[in-house]
Amino acid sequence: MADVLAVMVTMTLVLSTDNAYACDPRVKRFKDQAKAERETEKREKAEAAKREAELRRQVRCGQVTVQ
User: Fold this and answer.
1) What is the pTM of this model?
2) 1: CB partners within 8 A, 6+ apart
């Protein structure tokens, strides 16, 4: 019975902690900022790859010469 009680207390603490994090606006703001940074990095990488591919195409077609 003591083991079951210990598990129930632990579960209650975990749920309380999860709820506290979910309700804290600072945590949400931090997660939103991290997500925005990841999206920005992803967009910048995609744009760089696109520019590089375009430059390679131009070199291949003879529109630009490499020095």
Assistant:
1) 0.58
2) none
